[in-house]
Description:
Number of helices of chain B: 3
Shape of chain A: globular
Largest sheet of chain A: 6 strands, antiparallel
Shape of chain B: elongated
Strand content of chain A: over 45%
Oligomer: heterodimer
Number of strands of chain A: 39
Mean pLDDT of chain B: 79
Structural class of chain A: mainly beta
Low-confidence stretches of chain B: 1-21, 173-178
Radius of gyration of chain B: 28 Å
Strand order of the largest sheet of chain B: 2-3-4-5-6-9-10-15
Mean pLDDT of chain A: 86
Helix content of chain B: 10-25%
Order of helices and strands of chain B: HEHEEEHEEEEEEEEEEE
Distance between the termini of chain B: 64 Å
Radius of gyration of chain A: 24 Å
Number of strands of chain B: 15
Structural class of chain B: mainly beta
Amino acid sequence: MKHLLKLTIFLSFIFTNCFAQELSFEIKSSEKFKEKFSKYPIDIDTIGSINNRHFLLFKNLPKFRNHYSITIIDDSLNVLNKKELNLIQPGINKEKKFEGILMINQKIALFTSFINDKNKKHYLFRQFINIETLEIEPEITLIGELDYSSYSKFERANLTFEVSPNKTKIMLFYTILNSNYEILNSRIYVYNNEFSLLWKNENVGFNYEGHLSYEKFKINNSGIVFLLGKHYVNKNDIYYVNFDFSYIAQFKNYARMFPIEKPTFNYQLYKMEDGNKNIDLYDLKLEGRFIRNLNFSFLDDSIICNGIYAEPGFISTSGTFVFKLNPYIGNIYDVFTQKFDKDLISQGFDKKELAHFKKNTGKMNEWDPYNYTISELKNKKNGEKYFTIEQFYDVTFSTRGGSTTLHLNRDIFVLTLNTNNSFKNVSKISKFQFNNDNPQLNSFYAFEQNNSLNFIFNATVKDNNIETYLVSLDANSKQNQTLLSEYKKNSTMIMPKSVIPLSDSSIIYPLRDLNWNYFNFQTIKFK
Amino acid sequence: MLKLRLALSATMILLLFTSLPAFSQSDATKYFDDGGISNRKKIIKLGFDPLNGEKLITFEKHIFDNGSFEYGLGVVDIGTQFRLFNKPDSERPIQIDSTGLGYTATIALKVYSEGFLSHFYICIQPKITVMSGNFLASFGPQFGYQYLIKNRVTISAETGGSVRFYKPYKYTSGINSYTNQDKNITFGFYFPILIKAGILF
């Protein structure tokens, strides 16, 4: 396994350098700094940008501590302001719970909540944050409340918010859960970008039998809310694969059997809109194919779905698809599919692991136990579109001190579409990433520059070290790989989920070291 | 066209009435008035260790995000300790009488798995015990589970392993034939099993 990994990295390096075109870009780095609460794991979210001022949220991972701070940087990577959010309600001395932060209409809205155990209510508030001083404005607005007096098993509340593509509508899905994360009661609020309530549904109920896994909420420019769900007749329908993580030093003693979903679920899209108390349900099915993973986005007046499929009754990926869905009557049309060559998806598992997986499924044609993240369809400047598919597997181990989750991310598949949404080509970018309890360094960021698609990511290399690469995919799908940084003690690595795109197609991104001791920012500007 | 205008007017009127109110700080007070429940960060508990014959009263105070300190004072039944540790075949018996009452004091740093008062916790608990005029010091990790009832009453159970340092009797010969001439400190293992009930305030 280890040798195969080395060989793959070596060959891909040789290959890409043989066909390399000269990439011309400039990297600028800020000074390293220590974050106040950096002795605990920190994640960084991008809030947004106003007039070349970029707002980032530093937050301790919830498992450890609950501290949140906002940092403003400019295009030159200067830190203009930095402030920790004080969630104590002034004058009352009660601590609110952080629920989220949203930049809309050049304002920053802060969502917080408070559990009032006397009234048996969960209150949801919105405040604005001053974009200069980063102080929380004193005016506080109640934007939602949920009564849990009739639910003896109330454990927590959860807020999900989404913004429409043209940023004129905001959806809040506000729900209370029991300790098994089962929904007890839910509400949907839809606001305009001035936070005036447009419509609400105070008793959201999805009508299904079995189990529904909520995958993604989205709201379109007309204020119609869609929920993509994975419907299971039986949630416990799973295969097992016996992963041997012996090639990962920390996990060599933790070989276990891990679950893989059986191909017995199907994707559903629920539609909720103002004035319609019923929730419309569309089954997303392709004739003769099993939809393995799917994402959706809005295109003009329709919904466009993209993803990967397997053969019916199988879980292993065998191709990709794009289709349109009429959001009013739910019919599927303009279906395009592209079969994957069998050698396109390299499994990355050894023979024993795959043999166990095949035996467990009872099907010798099964060969792909990965999960997949499907990106939304994105427009290229030349009118073409593209989307990405990333292989991953997250495994939670029981350890002596509790549990730890290994995040394993593998190859990226890049699907380019013609202007009519038919497939133009498929490319694969090989990578290997793993981290335990630390997914912020995994995955990648994709951006377009000079008619090329660029992918920036960290890669786990020999002795569990990390290197950062920029891979450029030109219009003819030729790859050019550049090593941006090699691991050295205390060196910082890109956090690819926290990238800020700039107007000239360059990017700014935060970096951190492996121990959360140091952070800094970098920018890549193409010449 | 008329219908569209009517619909737009209706929407505008609806918007005026459905926008949720904003409050100044003082107006928001009613939403935060929970009778002080969320400010309850202290617990007084009564504890009982049936295995070691200990009865404790403890005071726990929230210190940081998911951590707290718990201070405790209590009494120990020396007879129970004698039966447990000074058995006829004990190699390092404790210098204690066979009956009587001892005293104990503890201070524990507790870390909860999620926020303060969430169910699971681990703690490091140094402890000093005085029995029959002799000091015993113990130290070790423990883990426990705490359940909160009606935001007021806590029930918890914790156990773990501790190393206890003490001066042992020096064994001479025969059953229970000891002298207390050994001045070297030795150690033994000690397993507390504590059940506690408390009031949150």
